[in-house]
Amino acid sequence: MKGIYPPYPAEPIADIREMFIHGTRRFAGKAALQHKRAGEWIPITYRELRADVEAVAGGLAALGLHPSHKVAIVGDNRPEWAVSYLAAACTGIVCVPVDKELRETEVRNILELSGAQAVIADYRHIEMICGLRRELPFLASAVSMDDAAREGIISFTELKRLGRARIESGKNDFEDRTVTPDSLLSILFTSGTMGNPKGVMLTHRNIASNLVDAVRWVNLRTEDRFLSVLPIHHSYECTDGFLLALYLGATISYAENLRRFVENLCETRSTAVLGVPLLWHAVYSKIEAAMAERGMWKVNAAKKLAALSEKVLGLNIRRLLFRAVHRKLGGSLRILISGGAAVDPAVARGFRELGITFLQGYGLTESSPIIAVNRNEAFKDDAAGLPLPSVEVRIAEDGEILARGPNIMLGYYNNPDATSDALEDGWLHTGDLGFVDYDGFLFIRGRKKSVIVTSAGKKIYPEEVEAEILKSPYISECLVWGSADKDVIIEAIAVPDMDACTQKGLDRPAIESLIRAEVRERCRKLAPFKRVTELTVRYEELEKTTTRKVKRYLYTSKGTSDIQQ
Known about the structure:
This protein is an alpha/beta fold. About 35% of the residues lie in helices and about 25% in strands.
C-alpha cells in the first residue's frame, strides 16, 4: 500500500531554527499568524514574526537566560505564545509548555520538576505565577504576555524593548546562538489520562523528522490556512498545527474559542483544521441535522450521483453537490485531521462524502507525536493509518505497539526508571495494544493498562465497548472498565445527550430509563462476556484533559448501580 502512492515532496530540515530561518526568508511578506482583537483579524507576516522572535530572544538573554536554561510558557493560543516558543527554540533555550487548565498546585509541580528559570504567562495566569515565585527561588523572571504588568513582572512589550536595545547595541542573540539536531527543544509534561504525568524530552531532531514525515505522507500545502483550535501546549497542536504550518509557509489563525469555531472558520476561510473526535462528532451532527431538514432523500441521491461520477467519469463533484454545506463552513475547508482518540468511521466517511478530506492519525507525546496517519489516497477509516516513512512499528508478543525512529523521545526528564520502562533498544513501548493488517495499516485495540481479562482468559477492550455504546444518539459520553470480585464485572458510566433527550420531552427518570435501554440494546451487538453489567447514568460531563481525553483513573474505582441485561 505504501508503494502504490509515493510520498509528497518535503524539504529536509535538521532543526527548528533552520526551519524558521528558511521560512521567514522565503515567505517574508506572507501572513504567518493572525489573531482577532476588537472584532478584527490582525495578521503578522513572516518578516514581522522574525523581527518579534529576534527581539524576544534578545529579551530572554537580557534576563540572563542561556542555552539549556528553561522557560515555561502558559496561556491561550495567541501570537505571544508562538513568539516566545520560537525565540527560545531558536537560541537553545528549552521550552516547557504548560497546560493552561492546570490548577496552581499542578503548575507549581511542573515548574519545580523542570527547574524553569523563567515563565511567560497570559493575564489569567500571571497572578498565580506571582504567588508561586515566592516558593520557587530558582524562578528568577516572570513575563506577562499582556502589558498590564505589576511589580516584579516584565511586560511582553518591555521584553521586546530589552531585546531590541541589545540588537541596536550590536548584540543579536538570535544570530549569535545556534542549536544542533540533538539539542533539547522542549519538555512536555503529559496530561496523564491514567495519572502520573511525566516530562517528555523532545529534541530538535525529533520534531524536525516528524514535520518532514507528516508532509511526505499528507497533502498539506503552502497555500493552506490553518485554524488553530486545540491547546497549543499539547504536542499534537504544537507540532502539527503550529510548527508544521510554519514549515509549509502556511497561515495560522487562532480561533477565539470552540463556541465560535464555525464563525472563525468562515471569517478566516480556513482550509485545514486539526481536531479531536469530540469536535468532529459535534460538527458532523449539526451538519446531519441541517441536511435532514432538507430531506435525506435529496442527500442520499446526491451521494449516489457523486459516487457514480467518480466511478464512471473519474470526476469528484462532491463540493459542487454539497456547496451549501461548504458555504456554511467558510467555502474553503478541504482537510480535517483527527487525533487523540479513535473517531467513529461513520463520521470520517460522512465528511468525505461531502467532499472534505478526513484523515485519522495516531501517536503519543513521546513520539513527537505522530507514529502513523491515514493518507489522502490510502486510508482506512477504522485504522490509525500507515506508519510514517521513517518510523518502524512492530507488535510485541502481548500485542503492545512498539515504535522506533528519529521521532522517538530522548526520555523522561530526571526519571530514569520511567525512561527504562518506556524505551528498550530504541523501541518505544506505547502502552497501546493493536495490530498491523496485510496492507500495512496500524489498528488500535485499546490501552494495555485498560484491557479487561476474564477468568476464562478472554480479553475485553473497553474502547470497543465504548465505541458501540456511543453509537446511540442519546449518549454523549461513556466510560467502561472492569472490576473483579469472584469474576470480572463490566462497569460503565454513560452521560446522556441532554439536547437529544429533552427534544423527546423526557424528564430525568425517563432519561435514565432510555439510557439504560440504549446501553442494553447496543451491548446486544457484542459477545455476552463484553456486555455491561453495571451502569451509572451521570448528568455531568466526565473530567478530561485539554485534548478532550477522559481521565479514566478518576472514575474506574467508583461504584455503579445495577443494570439488567
